[in-house]
Amino acid sequence: MTKLIIIMLSAVFINNYVLSRFLGICPFLGVSKKLGSAAGMSIAVIFVMLMATAATYPIEKYLLEPNGLKYLQTIVFILVIAALVQLVEIVMKKYTPALHHSLGVYLPLITTNCAVLGVTILNIDEGYTFIEAMVNSLGSGLGFFLAMVMFSGVRSTIEGSDIPESFKGLPITLVAAAITSLSFLGFGGVIENLFA
Fold it and tell me: What is the reported pTM?
């Protein structure tokens, strides 16, 4: 149980896919302008990460590895993720059309979101069991959610601030993203030492 807690907390804080591993930057920068859009995108990513791990882990362990097809891993995983994103998009369009519209082009981009693909591949590479992989995926999704919501707050503060002309737009957004990323470095030794 302790190992699962460490995996979860590490995925959220230390190995945050957006702020520490720099995966999933496109939706991080593109959808974080409004809190509602950031939260909606994050929930969709959490769902896709969990479902992608639940689908790709058995495919890897029982189909690709035993048959010597590990070289097809990336292609197969992308196809599975694409199918799951299509499912999420259909459900969102039907039940939450306003959120679907606000996410725009970024929802289909979950298909190629390297954070989702990264989670599924790194779960295999880290040698996690199925339960550990699911916990890591949940933690990674929650870390994505935390990063998106935090950065949405940062961006709303920036919009109300007096910024020098040369920093307006993308430059101040990138500076703010870097500072937000630095805030997660402090968690580096904390999680491991909690259970030592």
Answer: 0.84
From first CA to last CA, the distance across the chain in angstroms is 14
Residue with token string 């460490």: 6
Whole-number pLDDT of residue 194: 67
Least confident of 47-56, 85-94, 144-153: 85-94
Question: What would the two tokens of residue 84 be?
Answer: 């799951």
Euclidean distance between CA atoms 90 and 26, whole angstroms = 22
Structural domain count of the chain: 2
- Structural domain including 175 reads 162-196
Residue 69 burial (CB count, 10 A): 13
Query: In Å, how far are 12, 37, 90, 144, 193 from 104, measured between CA atoms?
Result: 26, 10, 13, 19, 42
d(Cα 145, Cα 138) in Å, to the nearest integer? 10
CB 121 within 8 A of CB 80: no
Phi, psi torsion values for 33, nearest 5 degrees: -70, -35
For residues 75 and 139, state if they share a domain.
yes
